[in-house]
Every structure is written in C-alpha cells, then in structure tokens.
Amino acid sequence: MMRTFLAATVLGIALSAAPLATQPTQAQQTKAEKSPKAAKPLTPGQKAARERQKKCGEEWKAAKAAGKIQKGTTWPKYWSACNKRLKGT
Over the stretch 1-59, which tens digit does the pLDDT of each residue have? Predict the structure, then answer.
C-alpha cells in the first residue's frame, strides 16, 4: 500500500512539473526579444596581435612544409618566439 502511494505521488509530481519545464520563463522571453549586441571594435593592440599571429602562422606552415622546424618544437613555442621577434622586445 505504501509503495503504491509513493509511486503515485512521485508520478503525480513528475507529471505536474513537466508542463512547467517546457514553458519559457519571463526572463528567457526577455532575452529572446532583445537584439544581439554588436561586437566591440578591436583595439589597435588586438589588431596588431592578430596580424602577428597570422604572419607567424604563415611562417610556421612554410617552415614546417620545408622541414625546417626543429624536432620537438610545437606551435605554442614557435608562436612565443615569433611574437617576441615581431614585437621587437
């Protein structure tokens, strides 16, 4: 008897909660109605960093294809050295 009551209670709670879970809340509706924010423009430093990364990437691909990369050198290590070289620091 107790098992039947317990099972019926759990089932009743699960069924009554199901419709609530499928309906979006007011906060979710408000977020959906808002237009997406425009991306912030990149700062000059960010633009320079992206250009250095692209240039180092091109150098990495060319050197790797030519077999000039030392054994054990990974992209992060190469990027670090190349970035320092291009920055001049």
Answer: 556 655 556 555 555 555 555 666 666 666 556 667 789 999 999 999 999 999 999 99
Max intra-chain CA distance, the chain: 81
Query: What are the b/e assignments for 20-37, b being 16+ CB within 10 Å?
Result: eeeeeeeeeeeeeeeeee
Query: Which residue shows structure tokens 């030392």?
Result: 70
Question: CA distances (Å), 24 to each of 13, 15, 18, in order?
Answer: 19, 17, 12
Ramachandran class of 76: left when φ > 0, alpha when ψ lies in -120 to 50, beta otherwise: alpha
* DSSP state letter for 73: -
Q: What is the distance between the alpha carbons of residues 58 and 62, in angstroms, rounded to a whole number?
A: 6
- Radius of gyration for the alpha carbons in the chain, expressed in angstroms and rounded: 29
Ramachandran quadrant class, 88 (left: phi over 0; alpha: psi -120 to 50; beta: rest): left
Instruction: Tell me if the pTM is above 0.85.
Output: no
